[in-house]
Design brief:
347 residues, nine-stranded mixed β-sheet, six-stranded antiparallel beta barrel, 17 strands
Length: 347
């Protein structure tokens, strides 16, 4: 499959810059794979669009990972924290950006002088190891003074409201630098409505990394290298999936991160296995899915690995048709945009 297969036309005004006043006020494009049909729906209709199922959510929590400041020379600098590393206390792996680059030994002043960073080493792909220091607790200061790392296609500064809205209502495990955006539409009322309609819920964790925004930059998808992301599947979720299978309940992944987590966790027989691990799984056509029957997702960027996953799940031509019709019908795209429900074909 070539990179040009992941292209589509999208008017810039359809890229949502703000969340709707209500999370669940989104539109929902229903894509029925078996019937090859595309329908306009509302997100609040979701509980009634599937038989009693097991909905699996990603409970990762976005932390305010973007730190702004200055080099000793006065030049502006930005760090995007990725994760703590082994070794010294408060040593982090980060992405660094400045006008003339960052080198080992540099001292940075961040968060209006409240946080100091020493560049320990410069790695590949713009990554750095940095030691952070403040008068109090570093983690507490990051939570207080860091900025929400909004994706680059949202062309405005992050605001206080994004700390809530660029976060799912069920987020509980900090570690992501990007939200699992399919979950942004769900409210406590939505979750209650799912239960009332006979659906069940389970959770996995995948800490979404910055690679989710990285376009495929090679000619063929087989050449693309995925960034590593950490995930966890609990014994309770594995048991819930087994019960659902035994009861004939479909498995609904809420977001592409759930698909990647579950598909990464399977054993040789295609059954998910509990545990903590990392994944570089790149799901692209053609692909046989072992766990997931239906998918709730947002609309994804051209030339992205997420769009390739959707094409693998729904079919290349049907996905192209759905995206074309969504643009024609003026759906809102990307993180703060509308949603899609893909009802998969029979296994």
């Amino acid at each position: 499959m070539r990179i040009s297969d992941l292209d589509y036309d999208l008017p810039g005004e359809l890229i949502a810059q703000e969340p709707l006043a209500r999370r669940d006020a989104s539109r929902l494009l229903l894509l029925d794979v078996a019937a090859s049909e595309v329908e306009d729906r509302l997100f609040t209709e979701l509980p009634g669009l599937l038989p009693p199922s097991l909905f699996v959510f990603n409970d990762t929590r976005v932390f305010p990972a973007r730190l702004l400041g200055y080099k000793a020379s006065g030049g502006r600098v930005e760090l995007l924290l990725l994760k703590k590393t082994e070794g010294a206390v408060d040593r982090w792996l980060a992405m660094g950006r400045s006008s003339k680059g960052l080198r080992a030994g540099m001292e940075l002043s961040l968060c209006e002088g409240r946080l100091r960073a020493h560049v320990v080493s410069a790695l590949d792909h713009g990554r750095l190891e940095v030691d952070l220091e403040t008068q109090g607790d570093v983690d507490a200061l990051i939570e207080q003074a860091g900025e929400v790392p909004l994706p680059p296609y949202i062309r405005r500064p992050a605001r206080d409201a994004d700390r809530t809205r660029y976060q799912t209502v069920y987020a509980r495990r900090p570690g992501a630098v990007a939200a699992p955006t399919a979950g942004l539409h769900f409210t406590e009322s939505t979750l209650s409505a799912l239960e009332e309609a006979g659906h069940q819920t389970a959770y996995v964790t995948l800490h979404v990394g910055p690679g989710t925004f990285r376009p495929v930059q090679v000619d063929t998808l087989e050449e693309h290298e995925m960034h590593e992301e950490a995930y966890e599947v609990s014994e309770a979720t594995v048991a819930a999936i087994a019960r659902a299978r035994a009861d004939g309940r479909p498995i609904v992944a809420v977001g592409t991160t759930v698909v990647r987590t579950l598909e990464s966790s399977v054993d040789a027989d295609g059954h998910p296995v509990a545990g903590v691990d990392t994944t570089r799984l790149f799901i692209r056509p053609p692909r046989r899915f072992h766990v997931v029957d239906h998918l709730v997702t947002n609309f994804h960027l051209p030339r992205s690995t997420l769009l390739a996953l959707v094409m693998a799940f729904a079919g290349v031509d049907l996905t192209r048709r759905a995206y074309r019709e969504a643009a024609e019908r003026r759906y809102r795209f990307y993180s703060y945009g509308d949603a899609m429900l893909i009802r998969g074909s029979a296994r």
